[in-house]
Amino acid sequence: MKGLVKILAGAGCIYAVYCVLLFLVQRQVIFPRYMIPAPPAPDYRTLGVEPLWLEASFGRVEAWYLPPESTAKKAPAVIFGHGNGELIDYWPSELSRFASMGIGLLLVEYPGYGRSAGSPSQESISETFTLAYDLLAARSDVDPGRIVLFGRSLGGGAVCDLALKRPSAAVILMSAFKSVSAFAIRYLAPAILIRDPFDNLAAGKNDRIRGRP
Q1: What number is the average pLDDT over the span 176-187?
Q2: Start-to-end Cα distance in the chain
Q3: Are 78 and 104 in contact (CB under 8 A)?
Q4: At what angle do helices 154-163 and 122-137 cross, to 10 degrees?
């Protein structure tokens, strides 16, 4: 009996250490920014983008605005959040079709990625995307009633979080997830250990986002 107790106690200690390590390193897994090669200085004119800098509480975060090709006084616009292993540098050409359709596009970088200050977390990303939305909505050439939120992978979490704070005409998700907390079971860990849950389902259940009064 004593031997069994020792085995269980040892297993419990090992599991506790595992959970502590998972808690400490999870942001390196969720936000692998150090594995992304440093981008060269961009040529904004060649890219056809307008560089913007968001003044967050932790420092400046970069964003790029791709204006629409149409001459409409107030055009619709899209706010795009990219995947966790990407940068805004990758997307101007990939998403250039928005401009040709008369839609503005705002590419928002994550804190600590590329040339941006800070460290990535749900809190810092939420602050960044809220600042980006407010800046976009205040532009004289953008219709604030026709702002669409578009997120790919981790960007889905970023825009769903934003959708709970600001109105949007639509939310588009590509290769997204229900929540980061849902991945905890894959690592045999309790969901309470997840520091950045990004609960996308909460956005989906929000009546205002679903078009209800």
Answers
A1: 87
A2: 62
A3: yes
A4: 60
Structure tokens at 208: 């205002």
Contact by Cβ (8 Å): 69, 100: yes
Q: Would you place residue 208 in the very low, low, confident or very high pLDDT band (cuts 50, 70, 90)?
A: low
**Nearest to 124, CA basis, from 111, 135, 134:** 111
Contact 112, 40 (CB under 8 A): no
Q: Are 147 and 122 in contact (CB under 8 A)?
A: no
Strands 59-66 and 104-108: antiparallel
* φ/ψ (deg, to 5) at 144: -65, -15
Using an 8 Å Cβ cutoff, are 103 and 50 in contact?
no
- What size, in residues, is the chain? 213
Residue 166 pLDDT class (50, 70, 90 cuts): very high
Q: Which contacts qualify for 88-94: CB closer than 8 Å, 24 or more apart?
A: 88/62, 88/63, 88/64, 88/114, 89/39, 89/42, 89/114, 92/47, 92/48, 92/49, 92/64, 92/66
Averaged pLDDT score across all residues of the chain: 91
Q: How confident is the model at residue 206 (pLDDT cuts 50, 70, 90)?
A: low
Sign of the torsion angle spanned by Cα atoms 53, 36, 130, 76? positive
pTM: 0.91
User: What three-state secondary structure class fits 14?
Assistant: helix
Nearest to residue 126, comparing CAs of 177, 183, 190, 199? 199
